[in-house]
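Lecture 7 notes: from sequence to structure.

We start with a single chain of 290 residues. Read the sequence below before looking at the structure.
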Amino acid sequence: MSDHLVAAEHEDWQLFLRKARANRSFQAGALITLLIVAMAAVSLVWTPYDVGKLSIPDRLQGPSWSHWFGTDHFGRDILSMIMEGSRNSIAVALIAVGVGIVIGVPLGCWAAAKRGWVDEVFMRTSDIIFAFPALLSAVMITAIFGPGAVNAIIAIGIFNIPVFARVARGAALSLWPREFILAARASGKGPARITAEHILPNIANLLLVQGTIQFSLGILAEAALSYVGLGAQPPATSWGRMLSEAQTMMAIAPQMAIAPGIAIIVTVLGLNLLGDGLRDVLDPRLRRER
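Now the structure, written as tokens:
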């Protein structure tokens, strides 16, 4: 890498840090997201109590020093369940978003590069998929293939594919007529090489912002699927299933619903703030085209 490119990358990084420090939405979203991810990471090695161990004498206790969020109808510590549930929710949403990016982005870039009948087939297929609400499609897929975390990932991931494909296609189409792309074509580079070397680096920021948005929607979709019994199955813990189990206990143990509800709200809020902050910080008008 030449000294000019190194200096340009360093200047871009310094600009990003300055804008990030000045953007409260980005800071708040990043802090909340990091705390949720840290909680999920800690749950891999430690939770205050074993969520698989029942303790009937301690059932339906309110918040206390021993159980900060209280206990459920089986005597399990709700805080420990929230911690473990965060791990499952993040894993499902993250992998589903990854599926959308890995499959959708190449499809969108391919459609933008080929145009013609390829682009037309892609657009009509996307229209068909978008004709069904995302959650309804996920429920249908998991109902056909059976409940479970893997099928939930597949269901959410399938809907993410056309989302990322359309974003990539739209962004790529706006770049193909640009001068630096025409110069690359004149130098003998093919569509695949131009996409890899010029298109993708210039739409990466847009894809990153879209990824945070789809991540938050993935958290909600996983919780909804688990709520209706089509997500992660016992003994795995899920925020959505915690809400489902709490609906008959609202009158005597509201903490069973309040704790996972707040966890979902805070996580989605943090990711949305992070996405809004990234959209402001990664202003495409201030980026360098490579």
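The longest helix spans residues 78-114. Keep this in mind for problem set 3.
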